[in-house]
Amino acid sequence: MLIDGKLVESESGRRFDVINPATEEVIGTAADGTRADMERAVAAARRAFDTTDWSRNHAFREACLRQLQAALEAEREEIRGELIAEVGCPLLSTYGPQLDAPLSEAITWPADMISQFPWKRELPDKDAFGMGALSAREVWKEPVGVVGVIVPWNFPLEITLNKIGPILAMGNTCVVKPAPDTPFNATRLGRLIAEKTDIPPGVVNIVPASDHLVGEVLSTSPLVDMVAFTGSTATGRRIMSAASATLKRTFLELGGKSVYLILDDDGDISGPIEGSAFVCMHAGQGCAMPTRLLVPNSRYDEAVEIVTAAMQRTKYGDPTDPSVIQGPLISKRQHERVLGYIEKGKQEGARLTTGGRVPPELTKGFFVEPTVFANVDNRMTIAQEEIFGPVLSVIGFDDDDDAVRIANDSIYGLSGVVHARDLDRAKAVAARIRTGTLGINGSVWYGADAPFGGYKQSGVGRQCGIEGLEIFTETKTVSWPA
Ligand code: NAD
């Protein structure tokens, strides 16, 4: 782990096993951080923030981020292999959101923005209390301070880079806690920071731990100013509640149950419907995956047939195979959880049209077949709860109003897809869906400059974009005699 600029073992001397979810083999061990390790890391981040000029030296921060970018790029191919081994993500996904997409901009875009960000804003001079004395006034943006960063296992490096890029660009210091399933991308990042950059000791600390609750220090410590979390809604609630004792800022990227909505135009809908099988990419382990396929009742049977065939064609198995779209689930626990939801779907009366089993030919690894449920009512558990597996539910609607009602009938509001031949109609429906991102007609909103986050219980705050820089700042209003 990286604490106060040094690459160290846990104070307990313990390490924990990391398992390849495609083979169930132990691929290595990581230092097992304790609460004491976490507290040392927090103290280091506090000292680095309070006693160095990191938070004020914009040019130095930009140079450090460029060094980090170069260091990551130099090890890109090792990172690719390591991500596939610890995350079980298909090789294909590393050319996009798992690795190459964030590597192209998650650090460089915030670095570019340091010189462009509106750090100061003038207000008009004012005699606020009518006492005949004008005051000059400005609004200054300043870093929040020490940020605790808690990361899940599904897109671990993507999420870590999209957090630390803006956090460091805005002048904060941080402690990163990776998920216990996927520590290696984070410990590698720690090594690169220590060995290949001038980022000062304490500015970034990386503390993996097998015990989830070691991360709780970041929500409770009075030395931490803010928690930036990506993970499940249940853990997000817990973090918000723990952070309330010290009134920490919380930035939460949580779960989703997004829709893939096909409006009832005439004509061929097979292309867009086939696209919904994309839910199998990385075995459905993406918070923004549109897992509810909403189709017009007038074309319901046709849609079920098309999507069932598309899911049956989806290639799953060894994630190192370049033609594989769907690899394993991350762990035995998730495997059991997803199979449990499939059972629940059957019990509640949904009709399984394909999949639903552990593939008999794959005797090792946490695999589940691409699965489609038809005859799903939106009130069923499989339509309401996040499954985080390769499971698609097909739900019928009567008209645009009904489609919007069903889309919004969820505690979540993270993402979604709308398809229609008439773009204006698609935009009008998109405007009524209460969700943080939406892709129309196969387009992609993703980017370091594009705010991402949730409405409702999908989260608080936005990652990336100007909003994702501002969230890591405090606001100070200052005046002096004009
Ligand atoms: P999780 O909530 O179980 O764990 C996420 C992280 O939180 C891990 O590092 C874990 O060790 C840590 N953690 C757990 N309990 C904690 C506590 N009490 N205090 C502090 N830290 C704690 O989630 P997961 O199973 O790792 O990830 C899957 C979830 O993440 C899904 O629900 C998915 O939708 C969500 N997710 C959301 C986004 C988004 O941007 N909205 C992105 C990716 C994943």
UniProtKB/TrEMBL annotation:
InterPro entries the UniProt entry points to: Ald_DH/histidinol_DH, Ald_DH_C, Ald_DH_CS_GLU, Ald_DH_N, Aldehyde_DH_dom
Gene3D superfamilies in UniProt: Aldehyde Dehydrogenase, Chain A, domain 1 (3.40.605.10), Aldehyde Dehydrogenase, Chain A, domain 2 (3.40.309.10)
Keyword Cell membrane among record annotations: no
An example molecular function term from Gene Ontology annotations: oxidoreductase activity, acting on the aldehyde or oxo group of donors, NAD or NADP as acceptor
Domain Aldehyde dehydrogenase: 8-478
Keywords: Oxidoreductase
Name of the protein in question: Aldehyde dehydrogenase family protein
